[in-house]
Amino acid sequence: MRTKIKTRFIHIGSFVLGFGFLGASDGIIFHQLLQWHSVIMATDRPGQIISDGIFHFAVTITLVIGGILLWLAGNPTNLSKGIRLLVGGILIGGGTFNIVEGIINHHILQIHRVKPGDPNALVYDLSFLAVGLLLLIIGIFIKRSGRTQLSSINA
After folding, report:
1. 66 with 17: CB under 8 angstroms?
2. Mind listing the pLDDT tens digit for each residue in 37-84?
3. Rounded to an integer, what distance in angstroms lies between the CA atom of residue 69 and that of residue 21?
4. CB contact at 8 A, 49 and 124
5. Residue whose C-alpha is closest to residue 32's, from 56, 10, 8
6. CA nearest to 98, candidates 36, 16, 19, 14
7. Which of 5, 12, 103, 137 is surrounded by the most beta carbons within 10 Å?
8. Sorting pLDDT into bands at 50, 70 and 90, what band is 146?
9. pTM of the predicted model as reported, rounded to 2 decimal places
10. Every domain of the chain and the residues it spans
């Protein structure tokens, strides 16, 4: 398989895997372990369990798709700076999950908050977004440093 196609699979697959991983982490940590919220809070407990189940099923499919794309890409160490592209993509995908989920579900749709009922709920919501932004920035930095070194090698 050509290097350009493998690189594309690493870019897309690592993003999808990171998006799914942060989604699964959110569901496990905030929904199940801390029991701070469910996907849809304005319903009875069985409705919350169903909404969380659909969410977990969706992020599981996302993880599988990301894994398949990375499997198709092959060993990232076979590409120049492949590990940087992989790690950067995972962080970008994870940060994107936090930002998209936080803005849409917490602020626009207001179907739940990170810690509903807490007097500092907005602080938790904004911290969730800040973590997402931090992951995104670090991921972009890691990927760009890999890409810069790639372009200087090819020059």
Report:
1. yes
2. 888 887 888 888 899 999 999 999 999 999 999 999 999 988 878 999
3. 15
4. no
5. 56
6. 19
7. 12
8. low
9. 0.88
10. 3-154
Q: Give the 3-state secondary structure of residue 121.
A: helix
Secondary structure of residue 4 in the 3-state scheme: helix
Letter string b/e over residues 36-52, b meaning 16 or more CB atoms within 10 A of that residue's CB: bbbbbbeeeeeebeebb
pLDDT in tens, 84-123: 999 999 999 999 999 999 999 999 998 889 998 899 999 9
Token pair listed for 47 = 């409705």
| Residue 122, CB-side half-sphere exposure with 13 Å CA sphere | 1
Q: Report yes or no: 83 and 77 within 8 Å, Cβ to Cβ.
A: yes
In this structure, what token pair is assigned to residue 15?
Answer: 């993003």
Cα–Cα distance measured from residue 128 to residue 24, given in angstroms and rounded to the nearest whole number: 15
Q: Which two tokens stand for residue 153?
A: 């090698």
Nearest to 124 by CA among 27, 14, 36: 36
**What is the rounded CA–CA span in Å between residue 65 and residue 71?**
10
